[in-house]
Amino acid sequence: MKPLLKSSRLDQVGITASIACAIHCAALPFLITTLPLWGLSFLAHSWVEVSMICLSLFIGTWSLSRSYPKHKKLLPVVVLILGFALIGCGHYLIHNLEAILIPLGGFTIAAAHFINWRYTRSCTHK
C-alpha cells in the first residue's frame, strides 16, 4: 500500500509553505498600508503568521520524520531547527532584526526541505 503523502511530496509542500511564509514576512511591512485597499487586511493579523509557522512546523516535522530513517542524515534536521530558531529569535529576542530574521528563517526551512528531498532521492534502499 502506498503512503498517502510521500516524503518527497511533503518536502515540495514544505518548500512552498516556507517560501510563502518568508515572502509574507518580508513583504508585509511594505504592503501593510495598501492591504485594506485590496481587502486583504486579514494578512496583517498575527493569527496568519502563527498559522503559517505552525503549518511549516507540522509539515517539516512530518516530512523529516518519514524520510530520516531512509537516509539517516542529520543535516536537514539541523537546518530545520536553525530555521525555526531564526524565526523565534526574530519574534521574541531581537526585535530590531525581525524583518530580516523571520524571512531568513522561512528560506532556511525551505532549504531544509530541499536538502531532505535531495537526500531522499539519492537513497538506494527503501
TrEMBL record:
Pfam families: MerC. The chain crosses the membrane at residues 12-32, 38-62, 74-94, 100-119. It comes from Pedobacter caeni. One of its GO terms (molecular function) is mercury ion transmembrane transporter activity. This is MerC mercury resistance protein. Keywords: Membrane, Transmembrane, Transmembrane helix. It comes from the Bacteria. GO terms for cellular component: membrane.
